[in-house]
Amino acid sequence: MKRILAFILLLALTLSGCKGSSEPSEESSAAFNGDSRVVCLYGSYAEAWLLAGGELVGVTEDAVKERDLDVGEAQVIGTVKEPNAEAIIALEPDLIIFSEDIAAQVDMVDVFTDAGIAVSGYRVDTFGDYSEMMEEFCGITGHEELLSEYVEKPREQIESARDKYGFKEEGPRVLLIRAFSSGIKAKTDDELAGAIMKDLGCNNIADDHPSMLEDLSLEEVISSDPDYIFVTTMGDEDAALSYLQGVIEENPAWEGLAAIKAGRFHVLPKDLFHYKPNHRWGESYEYLGKLLKE
């Protein structure tokens, strides 16, 4: 997990007695607590902040429409790709939490710091990343006791899933497809599901065929003939799967793949494999592990 925490110079001078730094000090971290005015620009991180005992004054649309979070009276301040900077600043937040994976959010960092607002950015691809983020969140809110339920419990579930479903020797050959309404791509361990597959001992065929990451060729898939094929979707799931189905229908050889003939083609649920599963990370491992033992 990579993190950026930026403070205005005045805050840094006041709290730490030195000139600005990109790394938070104990004094600057202590400036925030569960009552701080916090805006979150990504639904998954908004959920994590709430799990850590925090409250929110502003969230992006996905937190409500896709994650169905109870955000109280928090104001919706745009979408993840188009947050409304003016609306965010008008809320007078103490801290803005954003995603380092979303370029539009990263580009807004200077706007917020110039306005005197602290910002903290995260990239969460693995349970370890999530664990580190939750430790920071619970440290800020003062609710470290919540780590037992929302970090240690899923950690134990993951360890159990590794023991039960992990491959001790060479694992199966898998293909992970990211489908959206206008295209498909292969993904590796830079994708949540891919990271779990790798942790369980699978061999992702895209690691041996990097060209799949930019332009997924069914000819390469057919040549590699994976044991399992998994699909995650972005955006409108029906539109994404319709596009994928159209590509498949253009190539009858798809039906001859070992994974297809064995019924090992699986569309993974969004709540566990597209959105960050947060405290349900153990469920993601368990779900995928069961499929890999079919």
Automatic annotation (TrEMBL):
InterPro entries: ABC_Transporter_SBP, ABC_transptr_periplasmic_BD, Vit_B12_bind_prot. Residues 37-294 form the Fe/B12 periplasmic-binding domain. One of its GO terms (biological process) is cellular response to iron ion. Residues 1-21 form the signal peptide. Keywords: Signal. It holds the Pfam family Peripla_BP_2. It comes from the Bacteria. Belongs to the bacterial solute-binding protein 8 family. This is ABC transporter substrate-binding protein. It comes from Acutalibacter muris.
